[in-house]
Predict the 3D structure of the following.
Amino acid sequence: MERAALDAELLRRNVVEGPEKFFSGIDVVESTGSTNADLVARAMDSDADRLVLIAEAQEKGRGRHERHWVSPARAQIAMSVLVRARGIDPAVLGWLPLLTGVAVVDAVRAETGVPAVLKWPNDVLVDGRKLSGILAEIAAAGADPAVVVGIGVNVSLTEAELPVPHATSLTLAGAPDADRTALVTAILREFARRFTAWEASGWDIGELAAAYQERCSTIGAQVRAEIPGGEVLTGIATGVDEFGRLLIGERAVSAGDVTHLRAEY
């Protein structure tokens, strides 16, 4: 299958040289092991901030719980963003990947018309199938922590190319002509807009939490959570607390595999 390459020059004009002036650099490479790993290494330079790295193919892509996958070249968006959250309270740093999920959902909806929603904490679903995953890693701790956020979006994968049966792609979801360059631009602009507003608020989560809960299909659903240590918790997901943890009944879950037990709506 012929798949178009990303337009790196257009991305630089739109993202780095555009009116927002948020990102300091964007690189597109043909292949790498992991865009997250590459930017984590670059974060050792204290001046590195607001960088974007995109690979047309990843050989060692990683998700939560160190799950690995590979994808045909140019069939996905495989992108990482390095930002420094200056002066943030470490207690709310977990909201950064949730913010990223909101940005991806809004960009997908606006660019493709596909009715994407969030599944806690930051998977993007279409009709209950996974379209996008997000992985955040702290690259440098301290008062101004450097965080690398990886974003993977399935764009033109066919049914046979899906990494797992419960995944999907924009092509399969009814957007076969999705423009990856335009979608990357939209995701990064949404991320920049929300990060800027969050930082300007003094890292107050009020507006961000409201946006997240509006887009999260987990809230209100009957769920099953497999918690590290072997515990299994079942109940109604009632919301997300101030630290980004999922509330199931009276319990707050910070990590674990969550399954929706009834249809999402």
